[in-house]
């Protein structure tokens, strides 16, 4: 009986190791193949001539590997500690290799990074990136000599910035990262990807720390580290959402350790990358309701940070040319929920013959109220454990993601870790 159990364990271990090897090699081969073919997504080609269906098929295949990871992780629970540690290091090494390979890839169906490169140059030159739109740099206005000079130096970057009539939407902490990439190497996508890699390495380190706090296997980090969406959207498309992930994870790790002021600092910095993490502040503050002085200090810290981050944006003006104004009032794409909510709002306004409000405004107001309601419900009691804290943060973030008027694949990174 004992021999049969031992044999079964060895068979399970071999199956798990074989599965990890096949999954890792498959993803590495897919990443290498995509990188080799990525020049076909360059600006010299029209979308109709690009291998879009092959890209979709490759991502679907990567998704199939991703779906197999939970089985592999569970099958690896019986591995001896030394062998399990080796699998963790191999998983981390393979994920790092995938990221480095993608440094050589041409961004596929994406141009947001052009705005990052432009904003980084503007910020690094000591100019306010919220003051003028990229379009203004093309106007040859004598009063905008510094901006015009950057436009001429940018090569093809300025002409490829999307929505050039809008001033930037990216908050100051993100602007600092863009500027750092410019200082490392002006107008360089590789330098920007290097910044993303640094933040992503911090993310996986914090994820491993959180998994240890939760009593989970470090192999669960593979759901992030080997995720096809992360690989495509961060290291091929070079999206800046990578900057917020370690700050949010750091906030959760600090909250679990009952360090709410430090967690508040992390969330405030994360909101300086993208505004959405502010919805996690009530969860972090919930445990301080019986400590009014500490709660007041945390609120003051968040307000001070928010004011500092908002000042360059507000001082430049929030007219229709502001990216913040345009995004908050008009942006809607890829959302399943928002069109239904907006349609219901339109029907209600027509039924009540109210013309002073737009259906879009009413729908957005309803979504904000719904998110606030979910936050209030999740914060009705203190988190009972580290797992409860993480679960509540997931529910809050997922609600905002699912109800957001604009949704893109890289927004999934808000929820994934």
Describe it for me?
By secondary structure, the protein is an all-alpha fold. Helix content is 65%, strand content 0%. It is globular and about 75 Å long. The mean pLDDT is 92.
What's the short story on this structure?
Helices cover 65% and strands 0% of the residues. It is mainly alpha-helical and 417 residues long. It folds into 3 domains: 153 residues, no CATH class; 76 residues, no CATH class; 174 residues, no CATH class.
The low-confidence parts are none
User: Can you tell me the number of structural domains?
Assistant: 3
DSSP summary: helix tally: 17
Q: Which sheet architecture does the biggest sheet show?
A: none
User: What's the rounded overall pLDDT mean?
Assistant: 92
What is the CA-CA span between the terminal residues? 41 Å
Helical residues, percent: 55-70%
Coarse morphology: globular
Strand % is: under 5%
Secondary-structure element pattern, one letter each:
HHHHHHHHHHHHHHHHH
Number of strands: 0
Ordered list of secondary-structure elements with their pairings:
Blueprint lengths: L1 H36 L14 H24 L5 H22 L9 H13 L20 H9 L18 H13 L4 H25 L8 H4 L2 H9 L7 H13 L3 H12 L9 H5 L6 H25 L6 H7 L7 H16 L6 H20 L7 H18 L14
Helix pairs in contact: 1-2, 1-3, 3-9, 4-6, 6-7, 7-10, 10-11, 11-13, 15-16, 16-17
Tags for this entry?
mainly alpha; 3 domains; 17 helices
